[in-house]
Design a protein that fits this description.
Chain lengths: ~1000, ~450
């Protein structure tokens, strides 16, 4: 052990600590001294080495630093391939670790579900690791117990009668094995797989049509006309990250004469996918079946009126019919594809398959594999609930699922679960359900675990630990192995045994190579031949209007308000409630943070006599909740959409009491769309924490758009927003080495991944709902949402807005202390130590991208969460201004590396956090002299523009206008002038370029 | 027709007794109550300053986009109020306006008290107030200087210069009266203290000669400062590109507004003081009427500033500017300050076209209070309303103050009043030497003109 290590007190005491002393203490009691000890222990862990293959149980040999692997250099970050798993679907990621401390998640470019990008949830998973409210030890009826003892007790039992498991859907081959072994040891064992965002309907739909559960594998990169039926395939479906990249490949238009895909979306409320739709049709969720049936009729050349009887009458139906006709024509004549969302019932999925079959999409734009998750093979929650009610469950093991919070009340889980004689619960942290169980076993975080999981296409992906478990923890695989009789389950051993059984040097090298890649190459599922096995009678039943009056086809819901449920784009089903980044994430269309709302159209709100922030009481499914109203343009009328995942009461201090729990309104037979029994204003008001209140451009030409036809007619339609304004000032010196960013708004779906990636990379604090209400959120990168067109039929433009790094920066000349100034390579730099906090720079920033530390937000950040901080980025103290730096730490790291090798920075060598994470690849960054990069090529496109260029700020960030590709069958919705005035103060005859 | 500047022709001794006696005649219960109230408010001010420094300025209502609010409003407002003192004592002195005599000391003290209030805010509003000295070009070993393109270092320089010159000018004018106090004070302790403060004034002719020369020079130095301070303050806004700030009319418009509010504050203070001390023959209706006339003049300059701004906002063709002027201010959040400024700053002064309004103490006093409110509102309109509605609608945000903001504003009013009351009790608030001089000149004048006693200014 070298000298610096010996100075660390903890490392010296015990050279072989399985867990560093102190980590088993509740973090709430951490004092400063203990914190420093923990940090020292973290540093000591660097010496122990997070080396692939000896992390979890380094019991055989501890290697001092002098003997460490050559790739480990203190101060140099390392990336390890592992995976994040959501409801069974794995996304390959690379986790950046600093001295064995995971700090940042990036996508694994080799992984088919990632291609280098990640979702919001993947990004936030690193903060979940450091959640200070994670369980620190096992509990036996509320009193601390030894985890190993409990595990040995479990392993010692055989033939447990009435043994039930309730798990999230799983895809891990190892867990599948373990389940088989459990079934052998406990013959009556039953497994229920449940998640509030279940995809069973997808598998049921394919079972209906193809005779077995199949997973559709869409090929958006080969599709020219996409019809999404309530399908948010760019943000809310399991393979969304990958599909975003594929979709963008056909959507991004590089030149006016190039081609782009066309997107039709029918959905009840705006979604990221819907905001990119050329033709979005707002329909209630229950009406999608009629729409799908009519679409099937249309592509088969039959009259659509039969499938859409009620709709064909009214004016509303007229719009739907035209939409269907246009969509059908495109589906038939171009390479088409219909995508049905996970919320839709199996009949709609079946109709989707039939349409795809009819237009020849099957085998071309959509192929099928077996599902990655084993969910369809197990029981569902209803089966478990029935067993509970019948008293057949003697021992219930629940891992990760939280039925007392999420289960529909009509299943009676909350009533019957406490009657089970033996209840065992395992999760990262205690929650609503764990409180009702006898044993609580702390689960290890994925970043502390060994394991495997399958990606959406079946690719086997490894999960490897990056850090010693912060708290005593067991993985789900190990827990299941214990039930299979293993008294000392070891995930590492299991993974090695399955994937690298050999012991020789060659086997070890192959194993390490596989771990480095993070996946088993070529392990994706083989394509399945999907042949329609549907009788004419069944086909007729599907195609005819459903007999069930409610949820019925369009028109039958008239007078009644339908509730639509949606997993929160921020905290999902509630499992991420304890992550402040996600709670404070402005949701894509209402920019709401810290809570959910009853979102509805303006007409519906008027009908109910309520407005924004008014609290309404909603009664449905036997439950009632109070929730504030938020008017959402683009929302279908007579419908209220509610986000799941809020209103928790045992999620810890961050998640408790945030928003309203709408699970109580759900029923098991209609989990996603249900008629409301009653909605009434309570007369109370609750001010929601919203980060963007105004979505209109007021004719200011901030976010530009054009149709493809307009773009072809006038490619330079953005000229007034990039041509330089005449100036009397001397030209600013600009070096050759100038960094710049280009953002294509055509393919930005507003998914928010960049917002969280920026937050994770740059140590951006969260501030809480009260501070958000005071407009004090700290995000360096926000996504501005602009809305054009009417409230019923809006067009959305997402405009990621970050520091524009102006060449003539208005912030720089007003700073009295030189705290913000220009670097020679074109960056607008912020010198925190020189900032005295006059805020003049923020007042003078026309983009309002600067953020101020009103309080010591870092001091208020939980100390375990501070372990996530990126050591290469200064943590800001109270009273200083901060803002986007273009990830200057990454630029300087590349610069140093290049100088050491006596070369120039290579094109593409510097990637900003937002660019790296973007699923569609809408953000490009680089040096402006690297003219073969996408960044520079994009800037040369006709449709580029600079926001507020009339002010003469000369930003380094350039945007590409949003191009729509509407069908000629449907009226073009764009206004003549993209800057349609609303304030009315502008003389319409005046050309916009004449401003200023 | 017009009122006299001095009613009666008191002797030197009578004037001395009356004007110096305010410092040693015991105050009644009213004084004690007044000191108690203002002392409590001052304590509140310092408690809230401590709270702000300890917790961070997040305890205020400022946010992004409204990065400046109450602190800067209060700063500009107090600095503006401070303008009248120097205007009266320096500019009117240079123009030989005799009517300034009885109110100049008083308004200079008001200036100093107001500038002290103002000086709190540029420091306190900083994120890290302990580094406020970085605004000054001190000889740093790292050779880092203030960034002089910004208006803020100039602001710091202008305000500190203004305060220094105002203090010197005021103190110089006090010297003869301090000597009189020394000579006539009833107790030894007072004689020692006033004697030290009088800096050895001996009343010789040569001393008077030097005194007059220095006083003239200082008046000449102070006069341009009246114009420069608020011009520099206005450039805190004018150099920015915020719609509603970005305007070249700001310097003259701010100076006029400052003098406008300063005279209003003089009236607000002088009317009760004159009544409490019974000085109706020294501070006559003539003085009040002249102040009212100046309010009318400067009020019209302010109104002209508003109109030019509207015209230029329209003429610029800039949507953001036009939205700011014609939508955001009259109809946007905090629109009440727009209407208050229009009513109080443009409407109220128009009553001073009528002599009866100019000479009615109650009308003057209420109008002056309304103008003070109006000018505070105008600063809120310019600062807060502009920031609420800038270029990107996505970042439009509202502002509302917290209890700390309001407490600090009230606290500065209390602190101002406390300092001013202390001044009234401890120093002769009307210049005795100048009053004696004027009385003598009026007597001479009376002898030359047969119509006795009713002629006035020199």
């Amino acid at each position: 052990m070298n000298r610096s290590d010996r100075s660390l007190p903890l490392a010296a005491v015990d050279p072989d600590p399985e867990f560093p002393p102190g980590v088993d203490q509740p973090p709430a009691e951490l004092d400063r001294r203990r914190m420093i000890q923990l940090l020292a222990a973290g540093a000591a862990l660097a010496g122990l080495g997070p080396i692939a293959g000896c992390m979890k149980k380094p019991s055989d040999r501890i290697m001092p630093r002098v003997d460490q692997r050559p790739e480990l250099t203190p101060g140099v970050a390392l990336d390890y391939a592992t995976a994040t798993v959501m409801d069974g679907y794995a996304t390959g990621v690379l986790v950046t670790t600093h001295e064995a401390r995971p700090t940042k998640v990036e996508g694994n470019p080799d992984h088919p579900a990632s291609l280098g990008a990640t979702s919001v949830f993947d990004q936030a998973s690193v903060l979940q690791l450091y959640d200070p409210d994670r369980a620190t030890g096992a509990l036996d009826r509320g009193t601390p117990a030894e985890l190993a003892t409990l595990v040995r007790q479990i392993a010692g039992r055989e033939r447990i009668e009435g043994l039930w498991f309730l798990l999230h859907p799983q895809s891990s081959p190892l867990i599948e094995d373990a389940i088989a072994r459990i079934r052998a040891r406990h013959p009556g064992a039953r497994f229920a797989f449940d998640t509030p965002v279940s995809r069973r309907a997808v598998f049921e739909g394919s079972r209906l049509v193809f005779g077995r559960p199949l997973e559709p594998q869409y090929r958006f990169d080969r599709t020219d006309a996409i019809v999404a039926l309530d399908a948010d395939f760019l943000a809310a479906m399991p393979n969304a990250v990958r599909w975003s990249r594929d979709f963008a490949a056909r959507r991004r238009i590089a030149a006016p004469q190039a081609d782009m895909s066309r997107l039709y979306v029918a959905e009840p409320h705006p979604t990221p996918t819907g905001s990119l739709a050329d033709h979005a049709l707002a329909v209630r969720g229950s009406e999608l079946r009629a729409i799908a049936a009519a679409l099937l009729a249309a592509v088969e050349g039959r009259a659509i009126e039969r499938a859409l009887p009620a709709a064909s009458a009214g004016a509303e139906g007229e719009g739907a019919r035209r939409w269907i006709a246009a969509a059908a024509r495109d589906l038939r004549t171009r390479r088409g594809l219909v995508v049905v969302g996970d919320r839709q019932p199996r009949e709609v999925h079946a109709l989707g398959h039939l349409i795809n079959q009819a237009i020849g999409a099957v085998g071309s734009t959509v192929v099928f594999t077996r599902p990655a998750v084993i969910e369809p093979l197990g029981d569902d929650l209803a089966a478990l609930a029935a067993a509970l009610a019948a008293g057949r469950v003697q021992t219930l093991v629940i891992a990760e699922a939280n039925p007392l919070y999420t289960a529909p009340p009509d299943l009676g889980v909350a009533v019957h679960l406490p009657r089970v004689p033996e209840r065992i619960y395992a999760d990262l942290a205690e929650n609503e359900t764990s409180r009702a169980c006898h044993w609580f076993l702390p689960l290890a975080h994925a970043m502390e675990s060994w394991g495997d999981a399958r990606g959406y296409d079946g690719t086997v992906t490894f999960i490897q630990p990056l850090i010693q478990p912060l708290h005593a923890g067991i993985t789900l695989l190990e827990l299941l192995s214990a039930f299979a009789g293993d008294p000392e389950p070891d995930g590492h051993r299991a993974v090695r045994a399955r994937y690298a059984p050999g012991t020789g040097d060659e086997a070890t090298a192959a194993w390490q190579a596989a771990l480095q890649r993070g996946l088993v190459t070529g392990s994706a599922f083989a394509l399945e031949v999907a042949a329609v096995r549907l009788g004419d009678a069944e086909r007729a039943t599907l195609a005819a209007p459903p007999g069930d009056p409610a949820p019925g086809p369009m028109g039958q819901m008239r007078g009644q308000i339908e509730l639509v449920f949606e997993p929160s784009p921020a905290v999902y089903d509630g499992r991420f409630s304890a992550i402040p980044w996600l709670q404070e994430l402005p949701k894509p269309f209402d920019k709401l943070t810290w809570g959910n709302a009853a979102r509805m159209s303006r007409a519906t709100a008027a009908q109910l006599g309520v407005g924004d922030h008014d609290v309404v009481r909603i009664v449905a499914g036997g439950g009632a909740v109070t929730v504030p109203v938020l008017i959402l343009p683009g929302h279908v009328d007579r419908c209220v959409s509610l986000e799941l995942g809020y209103g928790r009461w045992a999620a810890g201090p961050v998640g408790d009491g945030v928003g309203s729990n709408v699970y109580s309104l759900r029923t098991s037979d209609r989990p996603w769309f249900a008629p409301a029994a009653g909605i009434a204003a309570t007369g109370e008001r609750h001010r929601l924490a919203i980060t963007q209140e105004h979505q209109r451009q007021h004719g200011r030409q901030i976010a530009l758009e054009a149709t493809l036809d307009e773009y072809r007619r006038d490619p330079d339609f953005t000229r007034e927003r990039w041509q330089s304004e005449p100036t009397m000032l001397a030209p600013q010196f600009e070096s050759f080495f100038h960094w710049g960013m280009t953002i294509d708004t055509t393919i930005c779906s507003g998914c928010n991944a960049c917002v969280i990636a920026c937050q994770a990379e740059n140590n951006v604090p969260t501030v809480g709902a009260d501070q958000v209400r005071r407009n004090r959120e700290m995000h360096w990168l926000r996504i501005d949402l602009y809305r054009e067109g009417g409230d019923d039929d809006p067009r959305f433009i997402h405009q990621p807005m970050l520091c524009q790094h102006c060449a003539n920066a208005p912030c720089e000349y007003v700073c009295p202390t030189y705290a913000t100034q220009h670097s020679p390579d074109g960056l607008n730099e912020m010198i925190y130590n020189r900032c005295i906090g006059t805020r003049f720079c923020s007042n003078n920033c026309p983009y309002k991208v600067r953020r101020f530390n009103w309080f010591d937000f870092t001091e208020d950040t939980a100390r375990t969460r501070q372990l996530q901080y990126n050591p290469n980025v200064t943590v800001r103290s109270r009273g200083v201004m901060e803002k986007c730096t273009y990830c200057v730490q990454r630029i300087r790291a590349a610069d140093i590396a290049a100088r050491k090798q006596r070369r120039d920075i290579r094109p593409g060598e510097v990637v900003t956090a937002c660019q790296q994470v973007c699923p569609t690849g809408a953000i490009q960054f680089g040096r402006l002299d690297h003219d073969r990069t996408l960044n520079v090529q994009w800037r040369g496109e006709h449709r580029h523009y600079a926001v507020l260029n009339q002010l003469g700020t000369r930003p380094s960030t350039v945007y590409l206008a949003k191009i729509w590709n509407p069908s000629s069958d449907l009226p073009v919705r764009l206004d003549e002038d993209t800057g349609a005035t609303e304030g009315g103060a502008q003389d319409p005859a005046k050309p916009p370029g004449a401003e200023r | 027709m017009s009122e006299p500047l001095l009613i009666g022709r008191p002797s030197d001794a009578a004037l001395g007794d009356e004007l110096l006696g305010t410092t040693w005649r015991a105050g009644g219960a009213g004084w004690k109550i007044a000191f108690a109230i203002t002392g409590a408010l001052t304590a509140l001010l310092f408690a809230l300053i401590t709270y702000t420094v300890v917790k961070g300025i997040g305890v205020w209502g400022t946010n992004i986009p409204v990065g400046w609010a109450f602190a800067i409003i209060n700063f500009v407002w107090w600095i503006g109020i401070g303008h009248a003192g120097t205007f009266i004592s320096a500019i009117l002195y240079l123009f030989e306006q005799g009517w300034r005599t009885s109110i100049n000391r008083f308004s200079e003290a008001m200036t100093l008290c107001a500038v002290l209030q103002a000086a709190i805010f540029p420091v306190l509003h900083l994120g890290r107030p302990w580094f406020a000295y970085w605004l000054f070009p001190y000889p740093s070993v790292m050779e880092v200087w203030p960034q002089t393109k910004s208006a803020l270092p100039w602001d710091a320089a202008a305000v500190s210069t203004y305060f220094t010159v105002s203090l010197l000018f005021w103190y110089l004018g006090l010297l003869p009266d301090l000597a009189s106090l020394r000579d006539s004070a009833p107790t030894r302790r007072r004689r020692v203290i006033y004697g030290l403060l009088a800096l050895g004034w001996n009343g010789k002719a040569v001393t008077w000669r030097h005194y007059k020369a220095v006083y003239l020079v200082l008046a000449g130095l102070a006069a341009p400062l009246v114009l420069s301070v608020h011009s520099v303050v206005s450039s805190d806004f004018a150099i920015a590109l915020v719609p509603g700030w970005h305007s070249t009319i700001f310097p003259p418009y701010f100076v006029a507004g400052a003098i406008f509010s300063g005279f209003a504050m003089v009236i607000t203070l002088v009317i009760p003081v004159r009544r409490v001390f019974g000085l109706h023959h020294v501070i006559t209706r003539k003085h009040l009427e002249n102040c009212a006339k100046l309010i009318l003049v400067t009020g019209w300059i302010v109104a002209y500033g508003y109109m030019i701004e509207w015209f230029l906002d329209w003429y610029s063709g800039d949507r953001a500017e036009m939205y700011q002027a014609f939508v955001a201010r009259p109809f946007g959040p905090n629109k009440i300050v727009f209407y208050l400024s229009m009513i109080c700053n443009v409407g109220v002064p128009q009553i001073f076209w009528w002599t009866r309004a100019r000479t009615s103490v109650w009308v003057l006093w209420i109008a002056s209070l309304l103008i003070n409110v109006g000018m505070w509102s105008e600063r809120m309109m310019i600062i807060v309303q502009s920031l609420q509605r800038e270029y990107l609608p996505s970042q439009w945000g509202d502002y509302s103050p917290t209890w700390v903001d309001i407490g600090i504003l009230i606290g500065t009013i209390g602190f101002f009043a406390l300092l001013f009351l202390a001044f009234l009790r401890l120093l002769p608030f009307i210049s005795l030497s100048e009053m004696r001089e004027m009385a003598h000149e009026l007597v001479k004048h009376d002898r030359r003109t047969p119509a006795h006693g009713e002629r006035h200014d020199g």
